[in-house]
Amino acid sequence: MPRLPKAHTTITTSGATFRFYLGDSLDVLGRLTPGAVSAIVTSPPYNLGIRYRTYDDTIPRSEYLQWTDRWLAAAAGALSPQGSLFLNVGAKPTDPWTAIDVAQAARPHLQLQNTIHWIKSIAIEKALAGTNANLADDLAVGHYKPINSRRFLHDCHEFVFHFTNGGQTPIDRQAIGVRYQDRSNIARWQGAASGVRCRGNTWFIPYETIQSRAKDRPHPATFPPKLPEMCLRMNGLDRTKLVADPFLGLGSTAVACAQLGLNFIGIEMDEGYLSEAIERTRAALDPPAPIARANRRK
Fold first, then answer.
1. Cβ-count burial of 23 within 10 angstroms (0-12 exposed, 13-18 middle, 19+ buried)?
2. What's the DSSP call for residue 92?
3. What are the tens digits of pLDDT across the range 171-230?
4. Tens digits of per-residue pLDDT, 251-276?
5. Of all residues in the chain, what percent carry a pLDDT higher than 90?
6. In sequence order, which ranges of the chain are alpha helices (DSSP H)?
């Protein structure tokens, strides 16, 4: 197997190591030790015409799906037998098949074990929430992006496909569980002794409010660090030895690993995005990692 290229930047703490690679995901994924990665949490380009700085997001669909097949094959090879690939894919109203096409590209390589719906905006009517919710009025929360259309509903969610090698990977559902609204369930059900139940496959995770898109979120397609954090907790922190994100972007998965103390490998082809990801990861460490602790490639 070809050797890994030298990392662009490595950050080493007392509990974890973070390696960042500048380049194409396929150049690194295919060189990872087979079975070395416990979890992959990533969001590839969607091929929807998004304006990245260096990547062309408008290639023909057939070429895009061929490329998707190649990187998914490489990712499957790097994944441990009980590992998980959490694949976030969005779409747009005029091109609704994108996420499904990408998921289908994984079928020759991995098993679809769970389909998670990342809810970015939700409206809850007071009358439907139940008395225990104590809502004073109807509630509408989250990131709501208006569209001007007489045909389409507003798109308030994205998919997170949970792929595994054989569909038998154990998960830690209670690690991301929610408290029972009716506490009497704890007494009635033996499985409710912990006081929490499975969250299910709908996860409401809004974006944080920002003051400036260019300054605070200079990437056109990001997910909040809370999303990979929940994926990794669900995967089971005690058996997650190494996490990878082959499409690093601004480094939300790296930030989650910094907060959780997990070893990490990130790959990004845009040096500007990579620099932002490295700085965000440093800032997320407790205490923040000083620049002197990073071994930067010259």
1. middle
2. B
3. 999 999 998 766 655 555 555 556 788 999 999 999 876 454 455 554 445 789 999 999
4. 999 999 999 999 999 999 999 999 99
5. 66
6. 25-29, 61-78, 98-105, 126-129, 184-188, 213-216, 226-235, 252-260, 271-284
CB atoms within 10 A of CB 141: 13
- CA 18 – CA 124 distance, rounded (Å): 40
Burial status of residue 20 (CB atoms within 10 A of its CB: 0-12, 13-18, 19 or more): buried
Would you tell me the crossing angle of helices 98-105 and 61-78 to the nearest 10 degrees?
40
**Exposed/middle/buried for residue 244 (C-beta within 10 Å: 0-12, 13-18, 19+):** buried
User: How many Å apart are CA 163 and CA 111, to the nearest integer?
Assistant: 5
Task: Kindly give, in sequence order, each residue whose CB lies less than 8 Å from that of residue 71, ignoring residues fewer than 6 positions away.
Answer: 25, 26, 29, 44, 246
